[in-house]
Specification:
5-stranded parallel beta sheet, 20 strands, Rossmann fold, 21 helices, alpha/beta
Length: 486
């Protein structure tokens, strides 16, 4: 067999057989596709090494030293093909980043890197849709092979899964109903606006946080920071420090100066979720800041400018609460310069099949299951159900279906028991199972029980509870007073 002479870097000739040379050339030419990969590791040396290795293989790398920064990059771009994520980092760790992305419906593949891989970690990461957990140290060839395998699982049309040609929507918001098209139209009109305040109102689970994120992603501030906080989770004593920051020595544990969310948002967007949960005192402070467009850190004496757009959201009817004195009217008007409403799922039933298919596709891919499809009887039940938890509830149920059903065709029997009793055009089996006892029953006991169940299911939202019982909010409040529930 003939041989081929090649020259190494030393200038000395070495002899290669053709088969060996072909294999060497083949391995050199097996490059990665030209995709965007976010490399997130707080170790600068390792981060540079990862970027260099993957760039040499043809990938386009975006380096991020923190989980927060990586999260912002993936949120702001629809062309990310893979996130390479270190587990242990200061601030938001790898699992927290992964959990946040999945909760937001982002399906970009994730490879987790760690020096302490355990079975428990692997299970937790897999449940969150992680492609693989790689143990440090790893070889160059192993890294490239794992990245190539992960890229094979990436969505064809970007982070959200499907293109707008296939699934009508706006960014990661999906919907073909008239109420959703109206929302999309309002969002498109706001893309070029330098707005200062937007209020988003809708029931729990309707996608208010997603709307806020799309306002940032599609708007003129998309390259600026996006900072969010759930006001209901911040204890009252920590609210000032959280929002406005503090100077060193401002209080006992203030060992260093810390920027607040207003400062971190800079000239981007600050999203204040569950704004209706703020106390009266906190409302006064926020109003002063919005009126003056300046604030001070706790313990500080220097006025700092408010440069960010303020986006707020709540499941409460703030306009009604303002007229009834439970929320400051002047603050409400400041916050709702522009107003958006996220409709309940029962108000957009024509979107249920679209959303269910989208979630089934997403979770089938995430859990590496065969593609699931809704059978007509299952769709009938979904269309007949009231959806008190809205899109979030539908998403959770579709995840359960993918995990626990063994067949690709999803039938009514594969749905949770609470949904199996619903049939389109009919009523839930509740009406069949509720029988009048022979000795009779007090009607007010049944009525009180239904009111309590409606409140429990809607987490105390009176308007939503009234809709579940098909009565007006005024009638519902009358019933609450009658049974000492108000």
């Amino acid at each position: 067999m003939a041989s081929v002479t090649a020259f190494g870097s030393s200038g000395q000739a070495r002899v290669e057989r053709p088969a060996a040379r072909i294999l060497r050339l083949k391995s050199m030419s097996t490059q990665l596709p030209p995709v965007n990969i976010v490399v997130c590791d707080d170790d600068e040396r390792l981060r540079r090494s990862l970027v260099r290795t993957l760039s040499e293989q043809g990938a386009h790398c975006i380096a991020s030293p923190t989980g927060d920064e990586a999260l912002s990059v993936v949120r702001s771009r629809s062309d990310i093909g893979l996130l390479l994520l270190d587990l242990i980092m200061p601030g938001m760790d790898g699992l927290q980043v992964l959990e946040r992305l999945r909760r937001e419906g982002c399906s970009v593949p994730v490879l987790l890197l760690t020096a302490n891989a355990t079975v428990d970690l692997a299970v937790r990461a897999t449940k969150l849709g992680c492609v693989n957990v790689m143990s440090k140290p790893y070889g160059r060839h192993e890294l490239v092979a794992q990245v190539r395998e992960a890229l094979a699982l990436r969505p064809v049309h970007g982070n959200g899964g499907a293109s707008s040609d296939e699934k009508p929507g706006y960014g990661r918001l999906l919907g073909q109903s008239s109420v959703m098209q109206e929302l999309f139209q309002r969002l498109r009109k706001m893309e070029k606006l330098q707005f200062t305040a937007v209020h988003i109102h809708g029931e729990s689970g309707t996608g208010k946080e997603l709307v806020a994120q799309e306002l940032h992603k599609q708007g003129i501030r998309h390259e600026r920071p996006y900072v969010e906080v759930d006001c209901s989770t911040v204890p009252e004593p920590l609210l000032d420090s959280t929002l406005f920051g503090h100077e060193r020595g401002a209080f006992t544990d203030a060992r260093a100066t810390r920027k607040g969310l207003f400062e971190l948002a800079d000239d981007g967007i600050l999203f204040l979720d569950e704004i209706g949960e703020l106390s009266a005192a906190a409302q006064v402070k926020l109003l002063r800041v919005l009126e003056a467009r300046t604030f001070r850190r706790v313990g500080g004496s220097r006025n700092l400018p408010v440069r960010a757009a303020i986006v707020t959201a709540t499941n409460r009817d703030l306009e009604l609460e303002a007229t009834q004195g439970r929320f400051r009217q002047d603050l409400y008007y400041r916050l709702s310069v522009l107003h958006l409403h996220t409709p309940a799922l029962r108000e957009r039933r024509e979107d249920i099949a679209l959303l269910a298919d989208h979630f089934l596709d997403d979770f089938s891919r995430r859990y590496r299951r065969s593609r699931r499809r809704l059978a007509p009887d299952a769709l009938d039940s979904l269309l007949a159900y009231g959806w008190p938890g809205n899109v979030r509830e539908l998403r959770n149920i579709m995840e359960q279906v993918v995990v626990f059903s063994a067949r690709p065709d999803v039938h009514r029997r594969d749905l949770p028991p609470a949904l199996q009793s619903f049939i389109r055009g009919g009523t839930p089996a509740f009406t069949d199972t509720l029988q009048l006892p022979e000795h009779g029953i007090r009607l007010k006991d049944v009525e009180r029980s239904l009111v309590e169940q409606a409140l429990h299911r809607t987490e105390g939202n009176q308007s939503a509870a009234a809709r579940l019982l098909d009565i007006s909010r005024h009638t519902f409040r009358t019933l609450m007073k009658r049974y000492d529930l108000l």
